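We close this part of the discussion by returning to an individual protein. Part of our work consisted of pairing the sequence of a single chain with a tokenised description of its backbone. What the numbers capture is local backbone geometry rather than side-chain detail. The amino acid sequence and the backbone structure tokens for this protein are reproduced below.
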Amino acid sequence: MPSTVIDPAVTGRTPAIASINPAARSYLDSARKHGLRAFHAIHRAFTGNLWMPPVALAD
């Protein structure tokens, strides 16, 4: 059975972009949950000062 090929012009997403979006969204969601605005998280990522969530220490 031949595989179905979906034209990126129809979906607006290429396979490369589709695979990047979940990671970027997860990063921004985590930053937002820790009080950092999306713009600041993106700015820090592009200036080499990547935001990372705090490490939870075991009791």
